[in-house]
Amino acid sequence: MTLDYYALLQVTQRASPADIKAAYHRALLAAHPDKNPSSAVDITVLQDAYRVLSAPALRAQHDLQLKNTKGPIGTGSRPAQIISLTEFQEDPACDAWSHPCRCGAQYTITVAEMDAGCHLVPCASCSEVIWVGYEMAEDADE
Ligand SMILES: [Zn+2]
């Protein structure tokens, strides 16, 4: 799991370097044991967050990691139809699951793709894309 440093500092992913610096100082102050003895926030985590978000290359890498772990819902140009994996047909021969598309072709998602956290599946033939719903083992503690 990738820790969302933007959420930690309470800024958006579009925040400017100045916004991030201000948010970092705000978060540090809020987490200071003298100001807030009950604060559960680890200051070293805030320092990590600022180190990453204040370095353009590290920030870009962090953005990419967030994109890969959060999934594309709500970020695409149009919402994808959500179909549960339980509606898919399992094909044990090739470790893949498939679902018929309206056009007659198939959506196919492989076990390897699911292991990688991939949810968006394009139709093999037309331009339709669906979002496959399945539980990831690492989300089980929610
Ligand atoms: Zn299709």
UniProtKB/TrEMBL annotation:
Signal sequence region: none
Gene3D superfamilies reported in the protein's UniProt record: DnaJ domain (1.10.287.110), DPH Zinc finger (3.10.660.10)
A Pfam family matched in the record: Zn_ribbon_CSL
Subcellular localization: Cytoplasm; Nucleus
Gene Ontology MF term list: metal ion binding
Keywords: Iron, Metal-binding, Nucleus
Cellular component, GO, one term: nucleus
Stretches assigned to the DPH-type MB domain: 79-135
Stored SMART domains: DnaJ
InterPro entries in the cross-refs: DnaJ_domain (IPR001623), DPH3/4-like (IPR044248), DPH_MB_dom (IPR007872), DPH_MB_sf (IPR036671), J_dom_sf (IPR036869)
GO biological process terms, semicolon-separated: protein histidyl modification to diphthamide
PANTHER family reported in the protein's UniProt record: DIPHTHAMIDE BIOSYNTHESIS PROTEIN 3, DPH3 HOMOLOG-RELATED
The family this protein is said to belong to: Belongs to the DPH3 family.
Protein name from the UniProt record: Diphthamide biosynthesis protein 3
Organism field: Mycena pura
Lineage: Eukaryota, Fungi, Dikarya, Basidiomycota, Agaricomycotina
